[in-house]
Amino acid sequence: MAEITAAMVSELRARTSVGMMDCKKALVECSGDMEKACDYLREKGLAKAAKKAERTAAQGKMFTYIHSNAKLAVLLELDCETDFVARTEEFNTLGHEIAMHIAAANPSYIKPEDVPAEVLEHEKMVIMAQAREEGKPEKMLEKIAEGRINKFYEENCLLEQKYIRNPDVKIKDLIVENIAKIGENIVVRRYARFMIEG
Questions:
Q1: Which residues form the Translation elongation factor EFTs/EF1B dimerisation domain (predicted)?
Q2: CATH code, domain carrying 126
Q3: Torsion angles phi and psi, residue 72, rounded to 5
Q4: Is the residue at 76 inside a domain?
Q5: CA distances for 41 relative to 31, 65, 74, 90, 129, angstroms
Q6: DSSP string, 8-63
Q7: CATH of the domain at 46
Q8: Please, are residues 90 and 178 in contact by the beta-carbon 8 Å criterion?
Q9: Which of 144, 31, 158, 25 lies closest to 97 in space, CA to CA?
């Protein structure tokens, strides 16, 4: 059995636009054979789902989650392509799951592209200062900052966060799985999280 490396997973992801976990699974199933893994994903419909993610999602629904103590609530707009899909059980389940995840994980942004440049710049400066304090060599600081910025995205961007019910899957992978199942693009448009302090 061939060893499945991170580079192989990245290559398959670049070729298919499918999530990392699904790419790894495909490579394991196909004993590391890249071409077979591409076919495997195509058969599973995941590569098709990634293509669907480019289509316009102008229909959808609002979802709410109110925590049992009634002091924490989330309002989420999840969009799809047709009104028909907006009424399906799968779409509604996904909406409720994402709203509940937002309540628990408290993301600040939807995706990395939404993080303002000044916030990123500030974060980078703090990370580089910490790395200097730790005695890391100056030429390594950029690389260290890059790695830790990815960690920042994982903690603060909804799509990059690990799904609270299954930390092996990111929210973006959960959405792609549902795009594959449902056959339409699905987009988190916006959300608001409200909390009564104290």
A1: 52-177
A2: 1.10.286.20
A3: -140, 130
A4: yes
A5: 14, 34, 34, 21, 43
A6: HHHHHHHHH---HHHHHHHHHHTTT-HHHHHHHHHHHTHHHHHHHTTS---EEEEE
A7: 1.10.8.10
A8: yes
A9: 158
Instruction: Give the tens place of pLDDT for each residue, 21-42.
Output: 888 888 888 888 888 888 887 7
Q: Shortest CA distance to 154 belongs to which of 174, 134, 170, 138?
A: 170
Asked if 141 and 134 touch (Cβ cutoff 8 Å), the reply is no
With respect to residue 121, please indicate whether it lies within any of the assigned structural domains: yes
pTM as predicted: 0.69
Number of domains in the chain: 3
What would the two tokens of residue 29 be? 């199933």
Q: Determine the Cα–Cα distance for residues 36 and 64; give it in Å rounded to an integer.
A: 42
Between CA 136 and CA 8 the distance in angstroms is 30
pLDDT band at residue 3, thresholds of 50, 70 and 90?
confident
Residue 1 lies in a domain: no
* Of the residues 31, 52, 73, the one at which a domain ends: 52
Q: Which domain holds residue 27?
A: 6-52
Please say whether the beta carbons of 173 and 46 come within 8 A: no
CA 198/CA 196 separation, integer angstroms? 7
Contacts 24+ apart (CB under 8 A), 86-89: 86/59, 86/60, 86/61, 88/182
Same domain? For 172 and 106 the reply is yes
92-102 b/e with 16+ CB inside 10 Å = b? eebbebbbbbb
Give the CATH number for residue 170.
3.30.479.20
